[in-house]
Protein 1
Amino acid sequence: MSDKYSSTAKRLRLIVIMASTAAAIAFGSSTATAGAEEDGAGIITALRQETDGAGFTASIELQGNPDTRLVYLHNPERIALDMMRTVPAVDLPAIKRNKLVTDLRHGLVARDRYRLIFSVAEPVQASTEVSKEGDDTVLTLRLKPGGETVGSIATAPVPASAETKADEIAGDGKLVVVVDPGHGGIDTGAISKDKTLEKNVNLDFALALRDALVKRGGIDVVLTRANDTFIPLAERSAIARRARADLFISMHADSIRYGTLRGATVYTLSERASDALSREIADSENSADRFADPEWRQDQPEVFDILLDLTRRETVSFSEHFATDLVGTLEDHDIGLIKNPKRSAGFRVLKAPDVPSVLLEIGYLSNSDDEKLLLSPEWRGRATEAVAAAIESFLKRRSPVAVNPD
């Protein structure tokens, strides 16, 4: 490695260890100390690419020897290369024009995992090879056209402490969905003119959605609450992270000052609200933490905030895709929607950086017609079947499958 990057790489090695440790502590991980003591971090110092008749080759120069894994992503076809506890010390180049690899995206997708995603024009066979060039490690990724199955993907070993949700999927075939009934306990949420409590509506829908998903098979469902309990917002998203969830969906039925407004709305996370209504809803939902103890209202350590934007890159994309799918499926099942039903705002409950997350306003208790539907078991069953169908479709297309080379 050139002297130009040596000091930078050493500093970044320390930063990534500290960042992994601080983030793990922030989320209560018992492996934080072990992660800091074990110097398994890597620093990307260069990426070279070559194209010939046999396919595409990317040679990644690293300081250190991080554990790696290849992951196959469907629809569209992509190959993801995960490097544990790794960050780049240089700007990675764009993909040179070729017939096989069309794009490269990269960023942190978990507190200890940096991902390079190669978009491909057709199914490929992929393999990796590790070699040494002086003090540098060179990780070579080779992509060849003609892959027919996920089984053509080769992976390098990953220690058990760093195994991802993909291993669990490959092991038992089950995906994890966390369903979050908003509010609960001392936090009643909205209250209609007829004294219907939002917290009860949300729980009824969450339980019905759980049952609808379990019936479909292949999905494990985790509820943030299964009874009338208060859960702080940060803990709700932390539950999703601890469960290594493939999707997080928060259920709500707000009351707003526009009594004529009715129908379902799907929200994703954004720094700026897409409109005044979304901002109002987010402010209302975020205020739930006024019931929480002071420690639950504190922000995460600054080092984690610095990494948050990079960590969320892929997660935001998945969240947006699911939100679009959910709106379309609700419409196909004749579930009423408000005008412009896909919106966004700064919902604290959606801030898990590595779990695709949406907030679903099932309807509005401030509208008497919506209230009647929200209290109808028949309509609830129809609505939750629509949501379950959207979730199942999304997970089938989106879930990565890591394959053992043996």
Protein 2
Amino acid sequence: MRTSDHDAPVSLSAAQRPVPVRPMSAAVARAMSLAIILLAAGAGCRDPEQLETAYGHQRGTAGRSVNGTSVLATLFEEADCQVSTWRRLASDLQQCDVIVWAPDDFGPPGTEVQQYFEQWLRSPTRKTLVYIGRDYNAEPHYWQAVSAGAPAAERIEIMRRLARATAQHEQDRLAMPAEATIEWFTVRRDCPRQQATHLQGPWSAGVDAATTSIHTQGQLQVPTRQELLALRPDSPQTADEVLDYETPYYETLLSAGPTVLVSRIRKPGWGHSQVIVITNGSFLLNLPLVNHAHRKLAGHLIRTCGSGSAVGFLESGPGDPMVSDQAPLPAWSRATRERVLLAAHWCVLGLVYCFCVYPIFGRPRTVADETVPDAHPAAFVQHVDALGELLQRTGDAQFAQRQVEHYHLVTRRDPVTRPRHAGPSAGLPFEPPTSPELDART
């Protein structure tokens, strides 16, 4: 077994070399906003059900949990990464360059899941699996933060909820095996509880350990060579068989004294792919990422994975995720949010337009009917003049007279046959009115 002191560096091409992450001002603002909302929600102790504690979820209401990963996903998006969410191991996961997996399970992954990721890591392109251990719960730390600024009358209730959350976590972690080994790590549950006071390793650069709040109890330790050889179904009997075993390379990226917090695993058959094993989420979940030093550690993780990558967040509850050949459509969180927000803005704009155009505001008033001739006498006079011109063009006085009488009898329904001032009687010669304007038109 090789450790970081003996590992040969793996050379990366320029296209595969991780690039620096750009400033995360927007992501920091989102993280701080989430913290303010969480603290404000619990400061009054009004409703204990308002605190979401679901573990390892990136989207939906559970993504805003104190144990969620939505803030970490936002940090990846700020580094130009395309983030998606998955709930099963399907063939379409090949399109992801990075998979972040924070399972809600205290046990190590099963054999089927390990085999799936073994094939995924052997892809021709560079792949990174980030595995975050389960032995952490942010709820007790949340109630501790709330109690600091709570009134004295509410501290008893807060301490009761703190004790309940702590007891619940201790009961849940009994599902964690006392000791179990897979190729990625060795699980040890009954380690002393401690808080990191000194940090070592490449990821400790620029991070003040005194400002961190990294807690550990159960550990994911680097397995020994004997433990790795014992994993083989047919234990090697000769030295040649031992040499044929493809030994992983383990590199410690962050540690607190003898406790390994973050380790990296590489194998010759993986090419440039890697597995990042993180002991727990005490510096990567939503509530811990309020801490500025923890966001620096998250920045180290993103740089190790490479900015601009396609990142898939894998959500799973107790037990292993389903391994399926079916290809479900991923929920592209960033694109979905943009489309939903755009549609919502257009709907609001349409409602504003309808309220401005269609309703009639103010007191009712009487409006003159434009169809009534008396409302526009000038227009009616022009109509009479035009009709007279048309009748004059016919040159038939009797026809014109009949048309006028028809108007009075049928349209006007006058009681007399011939109205007054209707013109000369039938049979008399028709003398058209004379006017300079009419002569000019003729």
Protein 3
Amino acid sequence: MKYILLIDEDPDILNIQQLVLTSFYGGEIIAVSNGSEALERLEAFGEPEVIISDQSILEEAGATFYSQLCEKDLLCPLVICSGDVVFEQHEKKYPNVSAFVRKPFSVESLTYLIKSITTEPTVKPDFLPVKLSILFNFIGRSFDLHLKLSDVNYVKLVKQGEGFSREDCEKLLNKGVTHLHISSKDSLEFLKAYEENLNFMLSARNGVTQEAIVDTIDNLVSIENVSKHLGWTPEVIESAKKSIDTAIRILSKDPSLANILKQKLANPTSGYARHLGLQAYLCCVLSADLAWGGESVQNKLALATLLHDLVVDEKYYDDIKSWNTKAANPKERSPEVIKYRLHPMEASKFIQKLENMPPDIDQILLQHHEKIDGSGFPRGLTTTRISQLATFFIIIEELIDFIGDGMSLESSFADFKTWGDATYSSGVFKKTYLFIRDKI
């Protein structure tokens, strides 16, 4: 049997490796999480075409797994993946390794490498099987999801752009369905989107949280009042805090960016700090049960919150609603208004230098001042051209405006519902608003 052996303790890494290989490799793919399981598979199935292993697996129990591989006198290539590759050192330490690959992964580089060292003819399957749990990470999918009835019969189950909820997932799992399928014409787009999501999550795991920023957000009185009014449990608050911490950890990899955030949040009583804190917690808590996306949605919304007004001078927050009104009026052309009107574009430019930033976040930054009827800025987009995550973000910002204007939280939420019922009357905006309305 011709096969490729994958070894990594991170299931997310194994998932993307399997998906990439399934899209073109004609043999079997066997994935395990440790060296002991790998040795068992080698004993049972013989020598594979390629072994792809995480570096940490080689060093299990004092590098005994690597030694055991060497003792087998395997002729197949051994490829090592690492997030911290110092090639000269590794080549001396592991002379039998054929290639070193740096994490995070690139779909193209992994595909090219494996095609160049395997002999099994490449294939082009009509459909790519994807685990149900993976599909939560994709917002506004531009691909259809199919259910496999037989080897030659697939039926379209979810159309592109439609929601795929946890409830939908559970129903399928209860029927014994563990995968849905993506057609070959959409497979590369899907794999690239999955790569972006994975690299985003890997980046989040490796940063260092800036406690000063976290403390400012966590200690805002406005958040405490809202959480009590809405009855948030400690578990719900902790989940939101985790997403905000993750976002801060990612951004703190850039020291200059971390310093900007610390300076702008130095005064926890400022309008900027209050707005940012409420936006972060409301986005993360209220998005927890969205029908599209999983944990990464909360992380993306938290990142967008921290970045969306980063280039805005705090002086604008003294009368932010007035500036929003002026910026939405194309007849207002003073230098100050034009500067404010263009800040979504400036924020988008700012994040271009940041690594592993998913395009979803760029869309939120560009669109967070757009309106359902096209009266927003900077581009006057209408509902059909505004992304799902941006739509969610926009409605939360409107809610925060009502919280600021109301005499009490009770009246603020009541006024928001009355206004929202009249404003969000159709499409994705209506669906998203009703989801949020139900939570407050």
Protein 4
Amino acid sequence: MKEEPKKGYSYKDVKDQGERWEAIYGVPYLTASPSYKHQSIVGELYLYLAPLF
């Protein structure tokens, strides 16, 4: 008996959902927005690392 292939999702399938969806290996994931703390840390890292480049 031959198994039917599973339908995977692509970026095209999830891009117009109005939220932050990603398709990873055909599986759709709803991702959270970065928190204020995360953005603050990334900003500090940028300011520290930018002069090195």
